[in-house]
Amino acid sequence: PPRILTLEEPVLHLEHCIAFAVHGNPAPTLHWLHNGQVLRETEIIHMEFYQQGEVSEGCLLFNKPTHYNNGNYTIVATNQLGSANQTIKGHFLEKPFPGVNRMNKTQSSFIPKFFCLDSKAFSFQVSIAVGLAAFACVLLVVLFIMINKYGRRSKFGMKG
Predict the structure, then answer these.
(1) Among 66, 67, 61, 63, which Cα is nearest to 18's?
(2) Regarding beta strands 29-34 and 82-90, do their DSSP bridges make them parallel or antiparallel, or are they unpaired?
(3) 29-34 sheet: strands from edge to edge
(4) Three-state SS letters, the chain
(5) Which residue intervals define the domain Immunoglobulin I-set in the entry (predicted)?
(6) Are 33 and 74 contacting, i.e. CB atoms less than 8 angstroms apart?
(7) Does residue 84 contact residue 1 with C-beta atoms inside 8 Å?
(8) Tens digit of pLDDT per residue, the chain (160 long)?
(9) Nearest one of 40, 5, 16, 3 to 92, comparing CA atoms
(10) Residue of 32, 116, 106 whose CA lies nearest to 75
(11) What pairs with residue 135 in β-bridges?
(12) CB 26 within 8 A of CB 79
């Protein structure tokens, strides 16, 4: 029956890799579980291994994993004589803004207050910003006109 020889925590090489080695004769089929659910291979998460005699060695590879990929990873090896499995914890990134629960709209002390405004306060701040920008534009246009009209220029095109 299959026997899992090694299962290592994720390490970053070119991609994050959970390295494994499985022994079995006949050669076992391998698949992975993520938090108890079958893990489907994609372009982001895929398995690469090679068979050398009765030992299969390889990696479960992650291309730029996020906090969604954190969790328990279980390798399951199965052949006609039995099956074996082993689990390892994979931690890639911290969850961003950990104190914020979007459903309850609670806020953490980690997030500045201006990120957590209701729609009335936000629209008020936007209108203030737009008003200040419009005032600055009008002031620049008036200054430009005054400099062109009343700037010191020679009346006869002669340089002083």
Answers:
(1) 61
(2) unpaired
(3) 37-38, 29-34, 71-79, 82-90
(4) CCEEEEECCCEECCCEEEEEEEECCCCCEEEEEECCEECCCCCCEEEEEEEECCEEEEEEEECCCCHHHCEEEEEEEEECCEEEEEEEEECCCCCCCCCCECCCCECCCCCCHHHCCCHHHHHHHHHHHHHHHHHHHHHHHHHHHHHHHHCCCCCCCCCC
(5) 21-88
(6) yes
(7) yes
(8) 999 999 999 998 889 999 999 999 998 999 999 999 999 988 889 999 998 888 999 999 999 898 899 999 999 999 999 999 999 999 888 888 776 555 554 445 555 555 555 677 778 888 999 999 999 999 999 999 988 887 766 666 666 5
(9) 16
(10) 32
(11) none
(12) yes
pTM for the whole thing?
Answer: 0.59
Two structure tokens written together for 75: 């390798």
- Name the residue with tokens 């936007």: 126
- Residue that is written with structure tokens 């004589």 in the block: 81
Q: Which residue has the tokens 């489907």?
A: 40
